[in-house]
Amino acid sequence: MNGPVRQASAPAVEELEIALLLEGVFQRYGFDFRAYDRPGLTRRVLGLMGERALATVSLLQDRVLHDPPTAAALLRALSVRPALLFDDPEQVRQTREVLACLGASAQPKVWLPECAHAEQAWSLAILLAEQRMHHRTEIFATLANEELLAEALEASIPMERMAQYQQNYLKSGGTAKLADYFEVRGKRAVLLPALRSRITWAQYNLVTDASFNEFQLILCRHALADFGPLLRQRALRLFHDSLALFGVLGIDRELAPGDTLAASYRPVFAHQAWYKRVA
To answer: Record's PANTHER family (predicted)?
Structure first.
């Protein structure tokens, strides 16, 4: 006779359900989250379940596979978190200094992979304008999620936020009036057309797509934190293949000795995750 069937523990069942959910999302929609950092991803999945009053991951999977709005909500939950205009003044100060490295390039190209909403790209466009480099610099902002990409293309800022954004801007080293870089449409503000025209938005998946251009600056501060170890190394290889010699890479944390091609880079600042490619 066969022995009694052993019951898996609740955490083991949940882990299996999440693995099946991610496989289903990949097979059904083509988005591959299977190599993302699992603890962080699990927290987002459970958060969505709480919002939808779903008791198990399997119930969520059923909704995701058969209900497009639920699928869209999950893809949004697992995508990079939005960044607001000048919301990290210290990082912006460092970016100001890094932009000086682009001065030697006739037509610099900057890539923002998994751009954390339009406001991240707008912040960079404003910095380039202050350096008088926006006329000859192209910003490529990419996102895997088509819905978030569409939102970025139509983005605007509520006017009531502008006072706080002005304070963030001043803390980051700005000396002008932030509103001068925007046009007002009713109760909302939009970056000036001359600056928006320097930003090219495109759908691009860091997990599956190959290098598509050569850049003098790649800035990826948000997405890498969600990646598991293997996927992170793939992204670092992709960035290396896309970065010009003596170009600058800005990432979420300092490179470790075991990171892909770490020996090809030299720090721009001490104890900060900015690197110049030297080999």
So the answer is: CHEMOTAXIS PROTEIN, CHEMOTAXIS PROTEIN METHYLTRANSFERASE
- Which DSSP helix (H) or strand (E) runs through 140? strand 138-143
pLDDT tens track for 143-194: 999 999 999 999 999 999 999 999 999 999 999 999 999 999 999 999 999 9
Q: For the packed helices 10-29 and 57-66, what is the interaxial angle rounded to 10 degrees?
A: 10
Confirm whether 1 is domain-assigned: no
In terms of Cα–Cα distance, which of 157, 169, 175, 161 is closest to 89? 169
123 and 32 part of one domain: no
* Token pair recorded at residue 67: 């209900």
Quote the number of domains for the chain.
2
CA dihedral 24, 30, 34, 40 (to 10 degrees): -100
- Final residue in a domain of this structure, among 78, 99, 130: 78
Secondary structure class of 246 (helix, strand, coil):
strand
What is the CB neighbour count within 10 angstroms for residue 104? 9
Please tell me the distance from the alpha carbon of residue 42 to that of residue 247, in angstroms, as a whole number.
Answer: 35
Angular region, 216: left φ>0, alpha ψ -120 to 50, beta rest: alpha
Closest CA to 250 of 279, 215, 199, 226: 215
Same domain, residue pair 112 and 178: yes
Q: 93 with 74, same domain?
A: no
By CB neighbour count within 10 A (0-12 exposed, 13-18 middle, 19+ buried), where does 82 fall?
Answer: middle
Q: In the sheet that 199-203 helps form, which strands lie side by side, from edge to edge?
A: 199-203, 138-143, 109-112, 215-219, 243-250, 274-277, 265-267
The CATH code of the domain that includes 192 is 3.40.50.150
Spans of the chain below 50 pLDDT: 1
The residue range of the domain holding 175 is 89-277
